[in-house]
Amino acid sequence: MLDQQTFILVRLLGEDDPQVRSLLWAANSPHMRDAVPGMVRALCRERGIDPDNPPAFGLPAGLPPPEYPLGRAKCGDVLGGPVGLGDADTRGHVGFFGATGMGKSTLVRLFILAFAGANP
Q1: I need a labelling partner for 38 at 20 to 30 A (CA). Which of 25, 60, 86, 95 fits?
Q2: CA 16 to CA 95: how far, in whole Å?
Q3: pLDDT, tens digit, for every residue of 80-102?
């Protein structure tokens, strides 16, 4: 059984990741159980995530590539796959949330330019 912090870091790294799955399997062994939290923390550092100050959310995993890409996901220094809107997203509502100064208006401008076919 993982402690709460290790569990959160595992979720952040992605439970489908082969290295993370190996660590989860090792956590079931009485001989390895105590070493797994340190190995999870080391894997976080290796991937540019500070385990003492993890981000509020991690990179999205397993999403199809967007039809209207705007950029790449980023978590710490780690770059993920392309992000943007897909055709299915354009039929409903889209919300942008964040604190003042985080770039919501800039993101909306980028979406408008991308949909208009302009290169931002």
Answers
A1: 60
A2: 28
A3: 778 777 777 666 677 777 788 87
